[in-house]
Design goal:
heterodimer, A: mainly alpha, 19 helices, globular, B: mainly beta
């Protein structure tokens, strides 16, 4: 999503008439991918001629590239003081607020932006994702449906629509969405991995494993392969007691996502079942550290300590499990 | 922790001088023409080997005289009680030697139903029903005569002789208040709820009669499900036809009710005093002495939270040890929708194991007792995981359908969401029953070869087991949601032998509930706990059934009574109903 947006950004900048001084230098740095220096140059350009150029708008875009969303929000809000009806700035602010996790503010901003320009498919997608953040899946699905309607080839919008349906346990619609992603990109590993999850939910573990294996194969050449298909395949193999096959996959998942608590938990659990207690202790203690409120991590660690005859520590972990589970048992508000 | 006592047997009663203390009645099989005509074919391959024959369960409902329709009263509001179903009891209320059937029913619900409403039965279609088994094996509806029509939206039933008068009494749970019916011994029952003080409040589910303190009187444990009322909560997608029953996480857990039997027809609520008041979402309840310390323990199947194992500390109080005993969650540490449960020794090692049903994609949980106070999640290694992955189970019992000496599993199935097929096309709201054969090394799904009933999709909920026709093969009765009750006659072709043991307590409770029975043959030992509880919302035949394989003689039967008395009997012949009386110089009743 961000990639297509920023390509459009650079084009817009290149065609701008305001290409003198720091602004021009900033644009040059931006086009080279030097976003830090670009942001500084845009800031200086704004100081030189406050409110008269689009420097702040460009600065925000540089910050977005740097994933500095607070700074991006600041630049945009200052820009909007002088350009209150700028649809570009409002849509961009809506996006930045979404990335900051401020879903409600983001939605308010998109509402304002839509008064000045009809939202594009990507904008509708972000609106849908805001509702995901708000745990309002019916509305999320509604806006993601509008996103793919507005832009039928928007692969990411289809993917997120599939995820939303999957979360709501509507497997037929989720499957349709992921198949659409695969129609647009026949080797999309994320979509194939999610088809595996659907097959698993449909109690078809063998078919699910085939999907995970395909996803792993398809992402082999990827610069940033996902840990998910390794985790999912490893977990299924664990359930089939194929620990020797599962452990290397789970190790790979941990290597790709060392801060992912679930990967650590699965690997630790597999090691525990294999009797590799030292390895299990390393992974399970890390899993608890990464996800201190995950009852399953505390439970497995409790089992490990019990196996190691560290009964006091085991009891503490079981007690913690019970405490978290007890809270979770009535967690959904009416 | 004590193992099965090898010494200190206080009475040996089979054919020795202590016989005056123990009354061993060899009951002749009662001929039941209807059921015998129903198709048994003895003479085929014996089933003592792991690759033995499948079962044969035949639906004899139509000719049995049972004509029961459970009224769930489904509404557009998707009130949770609508999908939970109800229980069934198999018990001999008139002591004629034949099991009778009691079926729990619902009540009308309006859409909307005002908050605070306690539904009431309005009309005969909502009545609970008592069916008396006649000498020809058919049943007659004696509900009105017995006075057991009931009042509210019924859920579960528990059977026990709480006043030790020799007649089984009934406790009926419901949404909004429960009922205790005293069996008057003349075919009628009296509602003694108020005097007994066991009405309770809230939404009660499974209940069990069990003597918690060893005073010889059955106490009463009553699970409750949720803090719930008739609120209008929309769950599921906001699309026509997609409204679904809400997940239990939407509601708070609630403490069970535990009533101490004062021995004078009254009870005192003691859940907190006994350490049994931990809030749960209880649906299934089973009893066994899992650590063999001589004190009966409790297992509670909770829906979508940790399961509870209450260890009896022997001092009149309990501690909850589900997590450290490794029976609270599945192998991955996840909770699941625990519903039905059984607590019995499936691997014949002398230690009671636990099996719990849940929803599709969760896999029924089988926990093998390690004998050291802990359990091992055994669903994966025994084949239960794979076989149950796509199923949703409720009533469940270990039973040796082919009398080969290994306890198999019979399971009532069906999803809780009537919308599940819209969102999960591979899953089914209506499902056939499941029969899993215990090979001695694991379980094998033999449903497909075990009769047409295993191909009929039902929304099954409560299930009770018992030998309806006293032919040595365990039968079952199933209550379905918004559907009929089914009587399933076991006609498995086998020449294997069997024995049914009926205990009569004289120092212990009259039913012998909580007693442990060990049967030793040339093939090995088997163990069972006397109980009417287990399964889901239901009460089963209290008699203990053992399949004996090719053994025509039981080398030893040993009974450990709740009183601590141990009786041993030698060389007991197979294929009989054996009544064992507990020795007592001064019976209490």
């Amino acid at each position: 999503m961000l990639v297509s947006f920023l390509v459009a950004c650079v084009c817009a900048i290149a065609s701008s008439a305001q290409t003198s001084g720091d602004l021009a230098l900033g644009l040059s740095e931006f086009s080279k991918g030097n976003f830090s220096s670009a942001a500084a140059l845009f800031a200086r350009a704004e100081v030189a001629a406050p409110g008269t150029t689009d420097a702040l708008l460009y600065e925000s875009k540089a910050h977005i590239h740097l994933e500095q969303f607070t700074a991006a929000e600041g630049a945009l809000r200052r820009y909007l003081l002088a350009h209150a009806t700028s649809a570009d700035a409002l849509y961009l602010l809506g996006y930045v607020l979404h990335r900051e996790g401020k879903a409600t503010e983001s939605l308010e901003t998109y509402t304002k932006a839509a008064q000045h320009r009809t939202p594009a498919g990507d904008d509708l997608k972000i609106v849908g994702l805001n509702y995901v953040l708000l745990n309002d899946y019916p509305d999320a699905i509604k806006w993601l449906e509008k996103a793919v309607e507005a832009e039928p080839k928007n692969k990411e919008a289809w993917y997120f629509l599939g995820r939303a349906y999957y979360t709501k346990s509507n497997l037929p619609e989720a499957r349709k969405a992921f198949l659409k992603v695969l129609e647009l990109d026949p080797r999309d590993a994320k979509a194939e991995n999610n088809l595996g999850l659907i097959l698993e939910s449909e109690a078809l573990p063998d078919a699910a494993m085939d999907a995970y294996r395909k996803a792993i194969q398809w992402q082999e050449q990827s610069v940033r392969p996902s840990e998910q298909p390794y985790l999912n395949l490893g977990s299924l193999l664990m359930e089939q007691l194929r620990l020797d096959d599962a452990i290397p996959l789970l190790q790979k998942a941990v290597a790709l996502a060392p801060r992912d608590a679930i990967c650590r938990l699965k690997l630790g659990t597999a090691n525990l079942r294999q009797g590799k207690l030292t390895d299990a202790q390393r992974d399970l203690e890390k899993a608890v550290q990464l996800a201190p409120d995950d009852p399953a991590a505390h439970y497995q660690l409790g089992k490990l300590y019990k196996e190691m005859k560290a009964l006091d520590r085991a009891k503490a972990e079981f007690d913690r499990t019970a405490e978290i589970q007890s809270r979770a048992a009535s967690s959904k508000p009416q | 922790m004590k193992r099965w006592p090898k010494t200190a047997i206080r009475h040996r009663c089979y054919g020795n001088v202590d016989a005056r203390f123990a009354f061993l009645l060899l009951c002749l099989l009662l001929p039941v023409p209807l059921l015998l005509v129903a198709g048994q074919e003895h003479g085929s391959t014996p089933s003592a080997s792991p690759s033995g024959p499948p079962g044969k369960f035949v639906d004899i409902t139509a000719r049995s005289g049972i004509n029961f329709q459970y009224q769930a009263s489904h509404t557009s509001k998707k009130y949770l009680p609508e999908t939970m179903g109800a229980g069934v009891a198999l018990f001999d209320y008139d002591n004629d030697g034949r099991l009778d059937i009691f079926l729990v029913n619902g009540a009308p619900l309006a859409a909307p139903t005002p908050k605070g409403t306690i539904p009431q039965k309005m009309g005969r279609q909502y009545w609970n029903r008592l069916y008396h088994q006649k000498t020809d094996g058919t049943f007659e509806d004696v509900t009105e005569r017995a006075g057991l029509q009931g009042t509210g939206y019924g859920m579960g039933v528990a059977v026990g002789d709480y006043d030790n008068d020799g007649y089984e009494d009934l406790y009926i749970t419901a949404y909004g208040g429960n009922k205790l019916y005293h069996n008057n011994g003349n075919g009628t029952f009296s509602d003694v709820t108020q005097r007994a003080g066991v009405g309770g409040t809230g939404w009660s589910t499974s209940a069990a009669w069990v003597d918690l303190d060893g005073d010889g009187f059955l106490d009463l444990v009553v699970l409750r499900y949720l803090e719930w009322d008739f609120d209008d909560i929309w769950c599921g997608e906001h699309k026509e036809g997609y409204r679904a029953y809400c997940h239990p996480d939407f509601f708070k857990p609630v403490s069970p009710l535990v009533y101490h039997n004062n021995g004078d027809g009254t009870f005192t609520e003691v859940a907190a005093k006994l350490g049994l008041a931990r809030p749960g979402k209880g649906l299934g309840l089973a009893i066994a002495d899992y650590d063999r310390d001589g004190h009966i323990d409790l297992f509670v199947a909770n829906d979508s939270m940790v399961e509870f194992l209450y260890h009896n500390k022997g001092n009149g109080t309990f501690e909850e040890v589900g997590l450290p005993s490794e029976v609270a969650v599945d192998i991955d540490g996840r909770t699941y929708a625990g519903m039905g449960v059984d607590f019995a020794d499936y691997d014949n090692d002398g230690w009671p194991d636990i099996v719990v049903t849940d929803l599709a994609n969760q896999r029924y949980a089988l926990y093998r007792n390690n004998g050291d106070g802990s359990f091992t999640y055994a669903s994966t290694t025994t084949g239960i995981s794979k076989m149950t992955l796509a199923h949703s189970g409720w009533g469940i019992r270990f039973l040796d359908y082919d009398n080969d000496g290994w306890k198999d599993l019979l399971i009532a199935q069906g999803h809780d969401l009537d919308t599940v097929e819209l969102t999960h096309p591979n899953l089914r709201y209506r499902e056939p029953m499941l029969l899993a054969r215990n090979t001695g090394r694991g379980f094998v799904d033999v449903s497909a070869e075990s009769g047409t009933i295993f191909r009929k999709p039902w929304v099954a909920r409560g299930m009770a087991i018992g030998d309806l026709d006293n032919d040595g093969r365990v039968d079952a009765v199933v209550n379905t949601n918004e559907g009929p009750a089914y009587v399933l006659h076991n006609e498995t072709a086998t020449e294997n032998h069997w024995i049914l043991v009926k205990l009569v307590g004289h120092q212990s409770n009259r039913d012998g509930i909580g007693a442990e029975v060990k049967a030793v043959t040339a093939s090995g030992a088997q163990f069972a706990t006397v109980t009417t509880a287990s399964s889901y919302l239901s009460a089963s035949d209290k008699r203990v059934h053992f399949g004996l394989g090719r053994n025509e003689v039981v080398q030893q039967i040993q009974v450990r009574w709740p009183s601590g008395i141990v009786q041993t009997f030698k060389d007991v012949r197979a294929n009989q109903i054996l009544q064992i009386d507990e020795p007592s110089g001064s019976p209490r009743w």
